[in-house]
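Task 17 of the worksheet. Students: predict the tertiary structure of the chain below and write it out as structure tokens. Keep your answer in the requested format; marks are given for formatting as well as content.
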Amino acid sequence: MNLLYHAKLKRMKDTALEFIAKALVAPGKGILAADESLPTIEKRFKPIGIESTEANRRAYRELLFTTPGIEEFISGIIMFDETLRQQILTNKAIIPGIKVDQGTEELPNHPGEKITKGIKGLGERLKEYQALGAKFSKWRAVFTIGQATPSVECLEKNSLLLAEFAAVSQAEGFVPIVEPEVLMDGNHGIDRCSEVTKAVLKFVFIKLKEKGVQLTGLLLKPNMVLPGEKFLNKAGPVEVAQKTLEIMKECVPPEVPGIVFLSGGQSPEETTDNLREMNRIGGVPWQLSFSFGRALQDPVLRAWQGRPENKKTAQEAFFNRAKINSEARYGK
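Model answer:
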């Protein structure tokens, strides 16, 4: 009887996770990444001369979260610890999420490579975040392309942490967003990025399988396949889309409900163009969506400038960028 009861509970939990994961990648919708840490939001504010105080951070995020009609295009918002605690997301049509990694530190004996912090005590933190209303979680790992990087140890350790994060998240009732980001830093070509992205995703899905993570109840947040920012020849949207989908088809199991691409330092226009071309090509088992930070927010910050009288203009900028990316999901 106990075995049947526990099996039924597991099925119910699995179904709930799958429901939330699918809602996050509903057609025409994507995720706003508003989970900048304190040092990162300070960098965002600096070019427009705004001091990163709690009041200013709250005012800015309130501006984003309360944009009229934004739920047409935004399914969920990833928040930073401070923002979730401020309880400013009151739109019931948008699913609250939380960034749970605690940034990166140097990987010992591997100069230039990083390991993500925050796995210790994750279960307890998730219990608290659940009480605050969060339904999904996110963990980011970064991989640098160099002559000898990423190393096997970097691939192994970060992939294991991503899998552990996903397993703990699901055990606590959260849909995990697994974010392995191959950085744009460097002068490598698009084929080298393709090669590294493939290696990263292979490692990640091996570790997810080893940890028994339910693939129907998670989302993948990878980089698009791009040349390094210092590479002389930029790649056009069609090439980026083709190369990216080629790798995704090879590495991502069909059970995963959706792929929510990160913008990774591209301009808002570039990210939208690349997403549009991927959806034009189509023919894949997953929803091809977005989880953008800067690509949604840069035009908003420029319009806002920290001035209350610019709030409406800034919200219009956010609405327009979200709408454009929603259209890109249909290949428009």
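Marker's comment: Residues 40 and 52 are 10 Å apart (CA to CA). The beta strands are 30-34, 74-79, 95-99, 104-106, 114-116, 136-143, 175-182, 219-220, 258-261, 287-292.
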